[in-house]
Design brief:
Blueprint lengths: L5 H4 L14 H52 L9 H7 L9 H15 L1
């Protein structure tokens, strides 16, 4: 078919008028194989995406149910009626963002007011 000479593959000047055409049956086999293999790949990819999406949907439903249960439990505790998540989140210290002492001292009066 092809000689393994690098000059044929890189920058070779080929006179396409002298090259024999590919047999129609062989060309059809190449195209069919490409279409079938590409279709199989896309189908497998689609199935994988659907499975992952279904898994995420189940996890989101569990999270939604867990959140609803937690909200119900918290609402049953007396004395937490005035506490909001915004006040708690803004005063919470995380390892990534540690406030300076002045900021933590400023948030203490706010917390004390909310508890009253």
């Amino acid at each position: 078919f092809f000689e393994m000479d690098n000059s044929l593959f890189v920058g070779a000047k080929i006179n396409y008028n002298e090259v024999e055409p590919i047999d129609h049956k062989e060309l059809l086999e190449f195209v069919n194989h490409f279409v079938v293999s590409t279709t199989n790949f896309i189908n497998k990819f689609g199935v994988t995406c659907e499975e992952k999406l279904a898994d995420v949907a189940v996890r989101l439903q569990r999270l939604d149910v867990t959140t609803a249960l937690l909200e119900d439990k918290l609402s049953s505790i007396k004395g937490l009626e005035g506490v909001t998540a915004d006040a708690y989140v803004s005063s919470t210290v995380t390892p990534a963002t540690q406030p300076s002492q002045s900021q933590s001292q400023q948030s203490q009066p706010v917390q004390q007011q909310q508890q009253q």
